[in-house]
Amino acid sequence: MESKPMQLEYTNKNLRRLIIPLVIEQLLAITVGLLDSVMVSQVGEAAISAVSLVDTVNVLLVNTFAALATGGAAIAGQYLGRQERDKAGHAGEQLLLFMIEASLLIMVFFYLGKGFVLNVVFGQVEPDVAAYANTYYLIVESSVPFLAVYSAGAALFRVMGNSKLSMWVSLVMNVINAAGNALLIFGFHMGVEGVAIPTLVSRIYAAAAMLVLLRRPGLALQVERLSLRHDRYIVKNILRFGVTNGLESSMFQLGKILLLSTVSVLGTAAVAANAIGNTFATFQCVAGNALGLGIVTVVSQCVGAGDYGKARFYTKKLLKTAYICMDLCILLVYLALPLALRLYNVSPEAEHCARQIIWMHGFMGMLFWPLSFTLPQALRAAGDTRFTMVVSSVSMWTMRVGCGILLGRVLGFGVLGIWMAMFADWLLRIAFFLPRFHGNKWETMSL
Q1: What's the whole-model pTM score?
Q2: How far apart are CA 98 and CA 111, in angstroms?
């Protein structure tokens, strides 16, 4: 007998319990990343360069797996909205199996292509940088399957509305990573191995914790065992929901990597200003990213319950919350800016340029960022992933990359031109996403 769709009600208290851990989790990842970079700097400039080069690839993997898992978990969320818990658990099992298989293939691909990545993608670097990069690459890429399992588990807990548990796993993972770095670098005076080994260990812990916790009885979505058999219907929907989401994230990161080569020819001050700007911009967007993940949980369950009125209502409510929270984050960054910039030992030219970037990004973020990035999460949660992928990809390659090169290098606006092109990318996304949300096409895309 089929379960009847439930009528979903999210109180303000429920929404706070969902969103606050997501914000903390996002802040943890950024803060620990900054601590890591400070500790790596103790090994030397060659080590910093090597780790930063390899991490451009690793950031691509982290974001791709997170997007793939979030998209795939939306299927389980729709089943939860229908009160079909067994099917939701089965969808969770299939997502884990898919992520493990995909990550093993990616890991093998990265090891086979190590020479291409280190020698062609990174280009000609100093011998000591190349040696450090090789060591770091060999250790960290072995953590890819564990990263994939953790990403899937975190996405499944978020879609259950249990973001607090995934936050605690993330907290312990980051503590293991930071403490391991401190111990191996300062205690045992190791090189890049002292950064790479804790990353591997922390991801092994996170994957194991997720697998154990997902088996706990009483969960809205319980993964009783790791199935080795594929369910063609579920896998097809994981491909439709998750892979398009993952491809979109991958292309977005590739575009950012491509623009780094444009920034690098603009001079040392431009490179430093761009790096500082990216760091502060990440803090400005913490709340917006967290609210986007919250929208996936809420909307996927509303869509599963067949209540598109509630899906629209909660999307609008969480979008307003994203604007309020982002405005607060941006204002806090503005207040901290004079003191925070002193921590960077850069030229007055680079500091002035970084300040301009941060103020520009904050002002435009207050106006447009949630509509450009938080709103489309509702479309993705409903299954309208192909549309969001096409719009995001076209907008990114034409505006962010194409106009970025045009404004930054051809027309002479420098690094500020690249950021202006990024704002044009936001506006083009909104021009497509906003009418799509107000229309009804996305309401036909569910399971």
Answers
A1: 0.82
A2: 20
